[in-house]
Amino acid sequence: MADRIYNFSPGPAMLPLAALEEAQRDLQALPGTGISILEISHRSKAFEAIINEAEANLRKLLGIPDRYRVLFLQGGALLQFAMVPMNLLRGQGKSADYILTGSWAKKAMQEAKTQGGVRVAWDGSSGNFKRMPSQNELDIRSGATYVHMTSNETIQGIQFPNEPNAGNVPLVCDSSSDFLCRPLDISKYGILYACAQKNAGPAGVTVVIIRDDVLQSMPTDLPSMLNYRELADSKSLLNTPPTFAVYMVKLVTDWLLRDIGGLDEMHRINKQKAEMLYGVIDQCGGFYDGHAEPASRSIMNVTFRLPNAELEEKFLKEAKSRGLVELKGHRSVGGCRASIYNAMPVEGVQSLRDCMLEFHDRNKPA
Ligand SMILES: *Cc1c(COP(=O)(O)O)cnc(C)c1O
Questions:
Q1: Do 76 and 38 share a structural domain?
Q2: Last-in-domain residue among 238, 260, 282
Q3: Cβ(195) – ligand 1 distance below 6 Å
Q4: Domains held by the chain: number
């Protein structure tokens, strides 16, 4: 096996070793075909089986009801920021409510503004995006066309503890950085989307789950590749899909079902990993200053600061020398961030915990 280190990158992020090994083993020829996944026709029986299995795995893991379509699209989460309002917001009298919880929610709203009317249902910016809103703080209009939320703010490291209630308004969720990290009740959502490169696969594919009635409410006059209805009718095969990325989503979801045993177990492991790091933050008397308020702490992205920039740099260097990399916070907020998605082994988090504890011991104020 190659020398792998612990990569705490927010995305593209670590993939399960089992999935990488399987891809490597079958790279030259998919079993029974004599053709590589990189060479195979997206119209072949073999690829059809792969995309169908990827969908079946997602349906099984998340308990997705039949009245939802599962699409595999390109353009990342950012294209979804635009496609959602393009498909739902054009036309008279339409306007959407956005829950502004952090950098990604803000970007989603900016993109929506290019397509139609938007309104803020809650704004966490004055509190520096340290927490998610509670249900009674949300000002969602019953007549809103949809309400948009971000289940996990990757940059700030805050996460909704559970789904907000949007009443009869279709709830649209950017779940890019916590997709498949825990079970969720998909019936609460009109649309849920997630780019794969955080938790579900490599860059290049975005999973979009849409309820049928929301799909049917959409116009048909958009260009094909921006039109959810056409994409759904073609079963994501309107044009050449990102075949290798879809294949990797199948391998990652195989791993979740076969090796982990489903999302309840994945959630248990993820909570255990997150508690290790938040434990250090709570234990070290403010040396590691956690950004998130405890009730909104993300189990995927742990964000914290050290007492000053020199110590931060020293810490990052020391971590790197121990094979713990990509711990620098996003350039817009600074500090440190440990992204501990599904594929980050418990051992990697233990190693980071030990590094943080030892660094604190040696550098704490006298
Ligand atoms: C990474 C991320 C995005 C952006 O995804 P792209 O695939 O790069 O467009 C959007 N939203 C959230 C919550 C993310 O974590």
A1: yes
A2: 260
A3: yes
A4: 2
Range of the domain at 277: 262-363
If asked whether residues 229 and 273 sit together in one domain, one would say: no
Q: Are residues 255 and 163 in the same domain?
A: yes
pLDDT value for 1:
56
pTM greater than 0.90: yes
Largest Cα span, the chain: 68
Question: The CATH number of the domain where 253 resides is what?
Answer: 3.40.640.10
Question: pLDDT class for 337, splitting at 50, 70, 90?
Answer: very high
Q: Give CA angle at 214 (211, 218), nearest 5°.
A: 135
Q: How far is CA 75 from CA 81, 82, 104, 261, in A?
A: 10, 10, 16, 31
* Predicted confidence band of residue 366 (pLDDT cuts 50, 70, 90): confident
- Determine whether 104 is an active site residue: yes
On whether the CB atoms of residues 273 and 340 are closer than 8 A, the answer is: yes
pLDDT tens string 156-169: 999 999 899 999 99
Residue where a domain terminates, one of 260, 291, 320? 260
Calculate how far, in angstroms, residue 241's C-alpha sits from the geometric centre of ligand 1. Answer: 19
Let me know if 174 is a catalytic residue.
Answer: yes
Active-site annotation holds for 255? no
Looking at the domain assignment, is residue 6 inside a domain? Answer: no
pLDDT digits (tens, 9 = 90+) for 213-265: 999 999 999 999 999 999 999 999 999 999 999 999 999 999 999 999 999 99
CB 254 within 8 A of CB 55: no
Task: Fill in the amino acid letter for 248.
Answer: M
From the CA of 365, how far away is ligand 1's center (Å)?
38
Q: Is the peptide bond before 12 cis (omega within 30 degrees of 0)?
A: yes
Say yes or no to pLDDT of 333 above 90: no
Residues 6+ apart with CB under 8 A from 138: 99, 121, 122, 164
